[in-house]
Amino acid sequence: MKKKNLLSTILLILSVLLLSGAAWFSYQKSRMDSTGHIPDPATEYLITQYADATGVQGTFYTISNNDTLIIIDGGWAGNADAVRKVIAKHNNTVDAWIISHPHQDHAGAFNVIYANPGEITIKNIYDNGFDYDFIEAAGEPYDDITVMETFHALTKDAGNVTHLKRGDNIALAGDLTLSVFNAWDESVLSTVGDEKDYQNNASLLFKISGAQNSMLFCSDIKYDMNDYLLGTYRNDISCDYIQAGHHGNWSFSDEFYEAAGASYAFIDAPSSITDNPDFPASTLKSSFQKKGTVFDFSTAPNSVTLK
């Protein structure tokens, strides 16, 4: 009987240890970014790419730690609830919300939330400094301008909006800096190309840098701007992580991405686009895979650490 009780006790202890070990491993895994690194939430930041709830291409990133939440874009209006859930995990406070340009798949969710914030507080908003009157007059070759009009109506009198300009260097939070290489200005007007795709080509090209590494966001800039931006900022765009331009389609050249030199690339699109040979994104994805790691919506949420 004593041996039986001893065996039962040993088995119980082993079971507890096994369960504790599994729980510890699960906890550690939940803290890892997509590269296997566990960020220090006190001194490092987690950059996270999210798939859009609509199931199509869109852009929504967060940069966060214990004290800070920065949002880039937010995706379609149908993604607003998903964005709200992320914000709720950060005490319903957004320290900085960057809108690369007011297209549906970038600013739709922002418009919904800003119009009805509930308990959400947005401390600072950054946009690309559009000349809205110009866009109204020039029109839009591919998308309607209702999201742009709504964004402008909601934010035009807000005191917490900064219209970013080419060459800006802004302290975002902690030791993070925002460096701007493209925004609405005369350089876009003179380089925009025959398609006159002002909204996409005036979207922000910017780098967010920590003390040790950085990520370059290419937004929806298309091939028209490639030569100008590469020629002007070749020595400034080097980075560790990169968001592919225009969801991987009809954007920057291989030379541009090689100059950036990122080891990790993000394409803001589902695999129905990134693995479809009918889209340039599939070729770009293959090119990125030869040099490093590529993330798209098929594995989202995807995350890396900004140090």
UniProtKB/TrEMBL annotation:
It comes from the Bacteria. Pfam families: Lactamase_B (PF00753). Residues 54-112 form the Metallo-beta-lactamase domain. This is ComEC family competence protein.
